[in-house]
Amino acid sequence: MGKIAVRDLSFSYGQRLALADVSIDIEEREVTALIGPSGCGKSTFLRCLNRMNDTIAGARPRGSVCIDGKDIYSGGTDVVELRKRVGMVFQRPNPFPQTIFDNVAFGPRVLGTHRGGALREVVEKSLRSADLWDEVKDSLRGDALSLSLGQQQRLCIARVVAVVPEVILMDEPCSALDPIGTLRVEELMRTLKEKYTIVIVTHNMQQAARVSDRTGFFWLNDQKAGILAEFGATEQIFTSPRDQRTEDYITGRSG
Amino acid sequence: MPREKFEHDLQRLKDEILALGAMAERAVAESVQALKKRDIAKARMIMEDDRLINERRYAIENETLTLIATQQPMAGDLRILAAIFEIATELERIADYAKGISNVTLMLGEEPLIKPLDDVPRMSDKACDMLHRALDSFMREDVEEARSIPPEDSEVDALYEKTYRELIACIMADPRTTEQANRLTWVAHNLERVADRVGNICERVVFSITGQGEELDGPLPR
Question: What per-residue confidence (pLDDT) applies to A42?
């Protein structure tokens, strides 16, 4: 069983079934990439892993999502604590309209760290982890929104890292970035996985091939619900997929 | 149609492989005919034309690399391109064997043959037939056909063994035949290697279709 063990997870938005019976084991300290055409439930699935879908009216999950053996959908789960353990980075960088320092210090402050020295330490450590420290160390009091998009996205990663999560979810984290910004985030993922379990949704198959250890391919079943059609080692998925649907998708013949 | 340009370029590369294969096959067949007919001019021409085969191989390699770099193929497409790369190399080497045989024809000159050449043309016919069908299996993506060819290598091996023994017998009967017998052994050896390389091509064809590496060796020599 992996760090995250998902069993028979189905998810509906009202009457519409968005995900059907997804089972997957996500291994600790690996990068797991989720690929597939738009609308096949990848992001829905990702958001199930830290219950970000809870806020959507009419959203209904079934099945189980266990992190370290405990079902996060069972009663008594502290959702705030869960989202501290399972952080998220979004498609467009979304720094708060505050200083660079305050963006990174936000989480630790909420969690009770207020001492200046300790905060400075955690901000520096997080910015170093996100490969941003050297670029911003002299402008920590500058506006986060004045950074380039690539820097903003790394700031958002630093903000996640600052609360010391176990899992980082990334929903198309490079789609708004230029090739250099993209490569820096990809390099960052390689170092972050030494400490964290990373799950990334990406439309860029080359990116999935470059950064991930395992790849899951999502597809739609006859009822138009998302399913996990194939899951395996990234080398295998991109050189010899076993499922014809995977082959057709990654060779650009469907989807 | 999705990926029209890629499909078009891939088909063109496969056609190029077929053309290179035809050149290599003809070089092998004609090198043996030239040896049998003692046609020195023909042998010289085959040696000169080897350059064209080498150039064509490098052109295929370049186009394959370009297609990989510009189209980022995955899965089956990537395996076919890897196979094209390997097959082009095998074909170029096969043509080198024809060049080696032609070189023997030049070295023998007008010298009378120490024995009639019967099995050497048989080896050539068999190896060329195997090569032809191997490339056909590649074009048609026929995995069963590709698997069925390498075991036939044992026929070529048996003919090589027979030719080798006969040439050793010639040397033992008359040591003055040693030099020519050596050279003719070399010819038979080259043909035996052509068939081996056809086996390699078949393995690439199977891998490109199934994604599974398979050893397709014929039975081990006794």
Answer: 96
CATH classification at residue B141: 1.20.58.220
Mark which residues 26-85 of A lie under 8 Å from B by CB.
Answer: none
Residues of chain B positioned with their CB less than 8 A from the CB of A206: 72
d(CA A205, nearest CA chain B) in Å? 9
For residue B18, the enclosing domain spans: 4-210
pLDDT of residue B46 exceeding 90, the answer is yes
Q: What is the 3-state secondary structure (H, E, C) of chain B?
A: CCCHHHHHHHHHHHHHHHHHHHHHHHHHHHHHHHHHHCCHHHHHHHHHHHHHHHHHHHHHHHHHHHHHHHHCCCHHHHHHHHHHHHHHHHHHHHHHHHHHHHHHHHHHCCCCCCCCCCHHHHHHHHHHHHHHHHHHHHHHCCHHHHHHCHHHHHHHHHHHHHHHHHHHHHHHHCHHHHHHHHHHHHHHHHHHHHHHHHHHHHHHHHHHHHCCCCCCCCCCCC
pTM of the prediction? 0.82
CB–CB contact A239 B78 (8 Å): yes
Q: What average pLDDT does range B47-59 have in this prediction?
A: 96
Name the more confident of B71 and B19: B19
Closest chain A CA to residue B82: A239
Q: What integer pLDDT is reported at residue B213 of this predicted model?
A: 86
Question: Of all residues in chain B, what percent carry a pLDDT higher than 70?
Answer: 97
Tens digits of residue pLDDT in A122-137:
999 999 999 999 999 9
Number of compact structural domains in chain B: 1
Which domains does chain A show, CATH number per domain? 4-95+165-250 (3.40.50.300)
In a domain, B221, yes or no: no
**Closest residue of chain A to B209, computed from CA coordinates:** A240
CA distance A241 to chain B (A): 7
Q: For all residues of chain B together, what is the average pLDDT?
A: 94
In chain B, residues with a C-beta closer than 8 Å to the C-beta of A239 are: 74-75, 78-79, 211
Q: Is residue B215 part of a domain?
A: no
Please give the Cα distance from A65 to A50 (Å, whole number).
Answer: 9
What ipTM goes with this model?
0.73
Whether the per-residue pLDDT at A71 is higher than 50: the answer is yes
Is there a contact between B3 and A252 if contact means CB atoms under 8 Å apart? yes
